[in-house]
């Protein structure tokens, strides 16, 4: 057997989790206070895990780098959370959610994990409502739903454009309750910088207090990493400025395999890049594709005139617009999955039809004028006005749009200084989410015993492309409904262990590794800032390991990143000292890890000689430009083992994917 | 609308650490794009400082899309600056003039001590939440079906509007009394408006208000500055609702 044992239970897919859960070991309530658990990260997965384990009676220590657990980047998720409730009576079921997620992931996710996710999805909504999460409701007082990409049912629950915020505040409230009760000790403004292993098992972490700079040792019987994704490898992404891969990458260096790093989601609807001082990109929720139509001009000269500022989009006649998603994918139209929508936008811009006057002309329109008219007419009729004027229709339609998407429209106007009620939004794809992550088995345990990984930080549920509104679902599923069972099963063998001392050689060694790295950065005394290198890395990644990848570009990227790594370590300038708040030092440590991971992403993309989901190898496409999977040779999870400083030496392990309950097919949204 | 570049002067609060004495420092920054956000402008200034081998300015920030509540800054005498309904990360340089002098200070409140430069400690807000900002329900998922209790849309919408608070602390920074009433009342209101939260409404409001007072926030004198500067436009109605909840709890005995 390979070192990758997925531990997928036997039995029918619909029974696996229930049967398995019924046979997991338990820890009696009187033993739980003797056991310590560390949780790194307080987004949906981390907060929900810490709250649940604290509630059960374990001693939990939770860590976040922000000034409060409520700031974690789950908070920025806008559109919604999926659940197979079938409240809308449109044929939804656990199986359909399972099927849509596997298909959406282009058949590169594990059946058993995804089915479990669909099974618990309904409980998530029940749990959140019980906590006081204010989901959107209909006039009858029941919960409202909307559609998201890649599905033909309405199963997405939402709270305006702030669903992530409301869900995170729900999990934060559960966590706060446990902190107040003394079951969870919270460490704000702390960053995990290494893991400590004793006899091969995860036994603690080394963390830096970001206020004092103090290096701290924390021991535990199990460590849960819920530190989010690695989109900031690209410098510009929709991630928060502080989002980083350091916790995940450090455990990788200590023996946890890293799976499918090349699977990155480029989200189709973000505000286009505007300048070189830009620090991040802003997402416009996928929910907007329920109401907006994506188009570019049919004529190249119109696109040129728009870019030159000589023509307004509203002046282009209906017949001269190319609604390219509706044209290419009539069955799903504007609601095709994210990877498909992103590539289609890139295809039009590469062909010269982009409408944004930035360096690369990268931008397409997202237009609400049709929706404003149709909803305005409906609203007029509902109010008894069966002969509304054009003005009445438009005014009512704008009100309807405002009630659904008001905060998103406001955000767009603040950033761009353009009014999206009057003129179409300009959008373009941007790095948003990473499907790849630390390899975990069915228990969400990494290849380091006692080290579990949850949420975006693991690789498990989304294959090569994540469907919209599924990240929130996965984070809460992992934290509330999976880890409490599987971590307890692991901890059942730890009831006699006793407290783990921190004055041991293993802690000394790990702390030394951290101190060495900090001292090296502070003494390099080079000439360029950390951001200088981060931006360079981002450009290489975006251009060569981005939406379109090919063998030559990937080989160049691997060499360029290796070169960049060398320059970075020789010539970076990190001001300040170690024993104080030092944001530049924090950033330097994170960028060092991004550079190494960036190289591994390119290596992974090079070995995967097929196109699937968000991974588009230009050599592998069909006559219509769609992804061409190679199930015979690449129906596996590619998990990489660290082999020392030169990332080129990492060793690939393959976990074969078996589809017993879903018939694998070409992904078709036409 | 078209972007252009402006040159600005900055007067920024510098303070080495919590115990040091701070002062305003003057900086000149050229070629700032009016399309830049205020924090991108500070990034640009920090890059300039690093290149001059000077210590960059510490400021809190994370999501940069107005939702995490981490960014702060008192800009030209206003929390989150001159624009309305935005956080500092969504404030854009097109709101400033070429040649303008911009004053940048941290939140000032006894309950929010300065950690360094523009970074303050807002953990008092967390402690208020821990005192009662939750529904005491375990995370079993085995509650009742989410649609078992219909909630009037009007109540759900009001609860959502209160829940939109991002916990940034602009209300405290804007208040002459450094009162946290808008923040606390938003959470009290959200949960008091929903059937799930009503069960514990009495204890919640008493515990949260007690903790708010213990943390050293001032009292509310109804100036309304908090609601004007709130980036999420949290309404003063919430304070009125909390006062009703508090009064009801304070004058009635436990059942």
Describe this structure in words.
The complex is a heterodimer of chains A (670) and B (255). Chain A has 670 residues and is an alpha+beta fold. Among the domains of chain A are: 273-429, Flavocytochrome C3, Chain A, domain 1 (Alpha-Beta Complex), CATH 3.90.700; 505-614, Fumarate reductase/succinate dehydrogenase flavoprotein-like, C-terminal domain (Methane Monooxygenase Hydroxylase, Chain G, domain 1, Up-down Bundle), CATH 1.20.58. Chain A is built from 17 helices and 19 strands. Chain B is of the alpha+beta class and 255 residues long. Chain B has helices at residues 38-51, 123-130, 153-163, 170-174, 181-193, 195-198, 201-214, 225-229, 237-251, and strands at residues 5-14, 23-33, 74-75, 78-79, 101-105, 114-116, 119-120. In chain B, α5 (181-193) crosses α9. Chains A and B meet through α2, α4, α5, α11 and α12 of A and α1, α2 and α3 of B.
Structural class of chain A: alpha+beta
Fraction of residues of chain A in helices? Answer: 25-40%
What's the CATH class of the largest domain in chain B, please?
Mainly Alpha
**Span between N and C termini of chain B?**
61 Å
Beta-strand fraction estimate of chain A: 5-15%
What is the H level of CATH, i.e. the homologous superfamily of the domain at 273-429 in chain A?
Answer: Succinate dehydrogenase/fumarate reductase flavoprotein, catalytic domain
From the alpha-carbon coordinates, what is the Rg of chain B to the nearest angstrom?
21 Å
Which band does the percent of strand residues of chain B land in?
A: 5-15%
Oligomer state equals heterodimer
Determine the number of helices of chain B (DSSP H or I, runs of at least 4 residues).
9
Sheet with most strands of chain B: 5 strands, mixed
In one word, what is the shape of chain A?
globular
């Amino acid at each position: 057997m390979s070192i990758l044992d997925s531990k997928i239970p036997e039995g029918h897919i619909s029974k696996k989790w229930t049967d398995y859960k019924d046979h997991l070991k338990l820890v009696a309530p009187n033993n739980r206070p003797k056991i310590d658990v560390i949780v790194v990260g307080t987004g949906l997965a981390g907060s929900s895990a810490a709250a649940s384990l604290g509630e059960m009676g374990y001693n939990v220590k939770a860590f976040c780098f922000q000034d409060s657990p409520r700031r974690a980047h789950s908070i920025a998720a806008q559109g919604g959370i999926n659940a197979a409730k079938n409240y809308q009576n449109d044929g939804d079921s656990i199986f359909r959610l399972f099927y849509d997620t596997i298909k959406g992931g282009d058949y590169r996710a594990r059946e058993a994990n995804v089915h479990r996710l669909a099974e618990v999805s309904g409980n998530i909504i029940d749990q959140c409502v019980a906590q006081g999460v204010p989901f959107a409701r209909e006039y009858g007082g029941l919960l409202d739903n909307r559609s998201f990409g890649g599905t033909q049912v309405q199963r997405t629950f939402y709270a305006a454009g702030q669903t992530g915020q409301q869900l995170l505040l729900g999990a934060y409230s559960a966590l706060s309750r446990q902190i107040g009760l003394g079951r969870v000790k919270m460490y704000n403004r702390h960053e995990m910088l290494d893991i400590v292993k004793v006899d091969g098992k995860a036994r603690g972490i080394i963390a830096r207090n970001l206020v004092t700079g103090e290096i701290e040792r924390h021991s535990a019987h199990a460590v849960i990493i819920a530190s989010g994704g690695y989109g900031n490898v690209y410098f510009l992404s929709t991630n928060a400025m502080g989002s980083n891969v350091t916790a995940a990458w450090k455990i990788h260096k200590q023996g946890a395999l890293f799976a499918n790093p090349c699977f990155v989601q480029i989200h189709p609807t973000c505000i286009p890049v505007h300048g070189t001082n830009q620090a991040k990109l802003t997402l416009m929720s996928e929910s907007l594709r329920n109401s907006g139509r994506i188009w570019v001009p049919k004529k190249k000269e119109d696109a040129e005139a728009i870019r030159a500022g000589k023509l307004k989009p509203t002046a282009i006649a209906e017949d001269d617009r190319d609604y390219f998603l509706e044209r290419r994918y009539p069955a799903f139209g504007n609601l095709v999955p994210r990877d498909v929508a992103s590539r289609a936008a890139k295809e039009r811009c590469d062909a010269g039809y982009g409408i944004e006057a930035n360096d690369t002309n990268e931008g397409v329109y997202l237009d609400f004028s049709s929706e404003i008219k149709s909803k305005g007419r409906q609203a007029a009729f509902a109010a008894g006005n069966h002969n509304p004027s054009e003005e009445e229709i438009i005014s009512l339609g704008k009100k309807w749009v405002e009630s659904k998407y008001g905060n998103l429209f406001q955000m767009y106007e603040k950033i761009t200084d353009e009014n999206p009620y009057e003129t179409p939004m300009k959008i373009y794809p941007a790095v948003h989410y990473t499907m790849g992550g630390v390899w975990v088995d069915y228990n969400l345990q990494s290849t380091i015993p006692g080290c579990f990984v949850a949420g975006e930080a693991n690789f498990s549920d989304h294959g090569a492309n994540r469907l919209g509104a599924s990240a929130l679902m996965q984070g809460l599923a992992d934290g509330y409904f999976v880890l409490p069972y599987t971590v307890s099963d692991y901890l059942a063998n730890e009831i006699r262990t006793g407290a783990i001392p921190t004055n041991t050689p293993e802690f000394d060694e790990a702390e030394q590794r951290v101190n060495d790295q900090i001292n090296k950065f502070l003494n390099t005394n080079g000439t360029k800032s950390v951001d200088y290198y981060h931006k360079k890395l981002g450009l290489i990644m975006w251009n060569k390991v981005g939406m379109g990848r090919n063998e030559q570009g990937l080989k160049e990227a691997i060499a360029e990143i290796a070169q960049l790594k060398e320059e970075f370590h020789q010539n970076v300038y990190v001001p300040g000292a170690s024993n104080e708040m030092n944001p530049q030092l924090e950033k330097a440590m994170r960028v060092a890890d991004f550079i190494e991971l960036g190289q591994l992403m390119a290596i992974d993309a090079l070995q995967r000689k097929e196109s699937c989901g968000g991974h588009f190898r230009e050599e592998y496409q069909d006559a219509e430009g769609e992804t061409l999977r190679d199930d015979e040779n690449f129906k596996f999870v590619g998990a990489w083992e660290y082999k020392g400083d030169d990332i080129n030496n990492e060793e690939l392990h393959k976990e074969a994917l078996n589809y017993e309950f879903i018939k694998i097919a070409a992904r078709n949204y036409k | 609308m078209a972007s252009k570049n402006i040159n600005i002067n900055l007067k920024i609060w510098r303070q080495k650490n919590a115990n040091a004495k701070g002062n305003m420092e003057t900086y000149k920054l050229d070629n700032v794009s009016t399309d830049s956000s205020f924090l991108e402008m500070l990034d640009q200034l920090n890059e300039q400082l690093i290149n001059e081998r000077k210590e960059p300015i510490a400021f809190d920030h994370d999501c940069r899309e107005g939702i995490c509540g981490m960014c702060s800054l008192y800009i030209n005498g206003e929390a989150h600056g001159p624009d309305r309904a935005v956080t500092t990360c969504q404030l854009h340089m097109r709101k400033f003039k070429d040649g303008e002098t911009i004053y940048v200070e941290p939140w000032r409140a006894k309950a929010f001590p300065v950690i360094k430069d523009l970074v303050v400690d807002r953990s008092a807000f967390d402690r208020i939440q821990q005192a009662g900002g939750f529904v005491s329900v375990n995370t079993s998922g085995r509650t009742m079906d989410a649609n078992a209790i219909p909630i009037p849309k009007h109540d759900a919408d009001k609860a959502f509007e209160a829940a939109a608070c991002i916990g940034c602390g602009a209300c405290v920074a804007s208040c002459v009394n450094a009162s946290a009433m808008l923040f606390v009342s938003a959470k009290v209101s959200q949960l008091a408006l929903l059937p799930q939260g009503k069960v514990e409404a009495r204890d919640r409001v008493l515990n949260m208000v007690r903790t708010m007072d213990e943390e050293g926030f001032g009292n509310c004198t109804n100036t309304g500055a908090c609601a004007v500067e709130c980036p999420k436009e949290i309404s003063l109605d919430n304070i009125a609702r909390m006062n009703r909840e508090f009064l009801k709890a304070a004058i009635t005995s436990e059942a």
